[in-house]
Amino acid sequence: MRTVAIIGRPNVGKSTLFNRLVGQKLALVDDRPGVTRDRREGEAELGHLSFRIIDTAGLEEAEPGSLSDRMRRQTEAAIDEADLVLFLVDARAGILPADETFAELVRRSGKPVVLLANKAEGRGGMAGAYDAFSLGLGDPVPLSAEHGEGMGDLLEAIEPFLETGEDEDDEDRAGKPLRVAIVGRPNAGKSTLVNRMIGAERLLTGPEAGITRDTISVDWRWRDHPIRLFDTAGLRKRARVEDKLEKLSVADALRAIRFAEVVVVLLDATIPFEKQDLSIVDLIESEGRAIVIGLNKWDLVADRPGLLKELRADAERLLPQVRGAPVVPLSGLAGEGIDRLMGSVVQAAEVWSRRVPTAKLNDWLAAALSAHPPPAVSGRRIKIRYMTQVKARPPHFALFGNQLDALPRAYTRYLVNGLRETFELPGVPIRLSLRSGKNPFEGKKKTWD
Which residues bind GTP 1 (predicted)? Predict the structure, then answer.
């Protein structure tokens, strides 16, 4: 089993992340720095990965022989033992000198490193996460260990280092399974669809709503594409979920969404776009997954001319946050439309992983600014300097300039819609972070010679 060590200065959330990964509160957590002293080990699971995790004391510069020095030596031993180092920083506090010192220590170890920007929930945290680029340890993965946000991104970051591939050749590794979750309201036909896809009665089905409780994963192959399907419990309105078992089932379904790459939202074509359907799409968009909308039970409404065109227009109107998401008619019971659905799923995964060259981005940005300049604030025009893509899966762009905090939401929507249309990014969430430069003369009085 591979070993992962969590490293960082005191009070950045190492023990909170450790507890999150082992699934129980094994490590003491407190707001005071230095609570963890000894190395603590546990068996961690994240998605389909299992590994040994080591929680370490916060790294501090200390006098030789002191308690802090002995704690530091324990941490250095954990780095030596690890196959992968998770270097944790506090996105809200920003990068401190201690982070830079210990980043150099980790870099000198020669071990693979994944940089994590913890406490990145909310706009303030996300802005601070990008300061971590200055450490030179690669792209930071923003997450919140306390709230469980960003665990899907963490899985993607560590997966290449932890999958052993002992019984796979290089060709098989290049074709690792695409993770696809099937979600929707109860009785939308999710289990029936999965059974028809794999050609076996693998999952229990019936007319009763709520038969599926656990999230079940099934490996399958579609046209030489390895696929891992996740059938999930039906998601009802939160106010209606009272039974403890149903709450656990819903939590399991939400976990499947976080670890999926593409999520198929299965709608009942006889009653599509109910309020709960829209809430489910909102949830998936907030998790940053690619979305495909499946109109199941299409055989019951196929005789209504113009219905598909009408429903696609409804999707554009009701779901602007994932504009262009494929809307695919199908029948899980009859086995119709599955190839169309899977073609859309594979294409959505490609769009979700797409990267746009910085030169092309800035050529587009110059044209967009020329066509529609940003408004002035207090008589001073907002200055946008450049844009870059900081990550994919989903596409995430950073915009740099002055006074960007004052940029109206309508203008950021204009930019996001332009990115989606120009670079062909339909149906995937697009993230846009605003980075304003600091004025070095702010707060200083003018002096005249």
Answer: 8-15, 55-59, 118-121
d(CA 72, CA 58): 8
Residue 258, token pair as written in the block: 């976080």
What is the model's pTM? 0.64
CA separation for the pair 264, 345 (Å, rounded)? 8
Neighbours of 85 (CB within 10 A): 25
Confidence band for 257, pLDDT divided at 50, 70 and 90? confident
Annotated binding site for GTP: 8-15, 55-59, 118-121, 184-191, 231-235, 296-299
In the chain, domain spans: 3-162, 177-352, 358-436
Contact predicate 117/89, CB 8 Å: yes
- Pairing type for strands 327-329 and 290-296 reads parallel
Architecture in CATH for domain 358-436: 2-Layer Sandwich (3.30)
Looking at the structure, give the CATH architecture of the domain made up of residues 3-162. Answer: 3-Layer(aba) Sandwich (3.40)
CB 365, CB 422: distance < 8 Å: no
pLDDT score at 254? 82
Contact 196, 338 (CB under 8 A): yes
Query: At residue 309, does pLDDT exceed 90?
Result: yes
| CATH H-level superfamily of 177-352 | P-loop containing nucleotide triphosphate hydrolases (3.40.50.300)
Best CA proximity match to 383, nearest among 397, 396, 365, 395: 365
Binding positions are: 8-15, 55-59, 118-121, 184-191, 231-235, 296-299
